[in-house]
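dumping this here so i dont lose it
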């Protein structure tokens, strides 16, 4: 079976050790987690856990079935990226020479919708949101121009396309 990047989205009670139980399902199968994000959901006391991994559909189904049997996991499902609304965010620590390359600088601000967060004599901190591919492409572009000093990227932040009422029924 072909491996693809699957995103597991779980709504969980905000309790100690729930994240450990979720990641253990991946560890048990020797699966590398590509991205992990935990945040509060729009429902008080319930957190959203988003995990991306490159695995087969058969494996992700087994993980989801295992997680569905956990008392503190209220709802869990898996998706391909195109089935969700998702973004990641990256911060880039860039050489001040970045400003000297006016074409690239303008391209970053206007075409890529990047933002400058901080400017000092030693560095510039820039922010960009988008897909992993977009963020990696910008990183590689900055590296080729010897402008990148440091880089940090968040995990996937996602919203389901289905109506909120349907999700509320699932987690209640």
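and the seq i came up w/
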């Amino acid at each position: 079976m072909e491996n693809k990047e699957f995103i597991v989205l779980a709504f969980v009670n905000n309790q100690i050790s729930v994240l450990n139980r979720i990641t253990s399902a991946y560890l048990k199968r020797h699966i590398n987690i590509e991205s992990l994000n935990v945040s509060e959901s729009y429902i008080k006391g319930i957190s959203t856990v988003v995990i991306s991994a490159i695995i087969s559909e058969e494996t992700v189904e087994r993980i989801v079935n295992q997680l569905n049997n956990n008392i503190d996991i209220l709802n869990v499902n898996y998706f391909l990226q195109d089935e969700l609304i998702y973004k990641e965010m990256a911060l880039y620590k860039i050489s001040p020479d970045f400003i000297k390359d006016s074409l690239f600088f303008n391209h970053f601000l206007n075409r890529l919708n990047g933002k400058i967060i901080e400017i000092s004599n030693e560095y510039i901190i820039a922010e960009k949101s988008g897909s992993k591919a977009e963020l990696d492409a910008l990183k590689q572009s900055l590296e080729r121009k010897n402008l990148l000093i440091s880089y940090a990227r968040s995990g996937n932040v996602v919203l389901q396309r289905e109506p909120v009422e349907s999700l509320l029924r699932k987690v209640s």
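DSSP finds five helices and nine strands in the chain.
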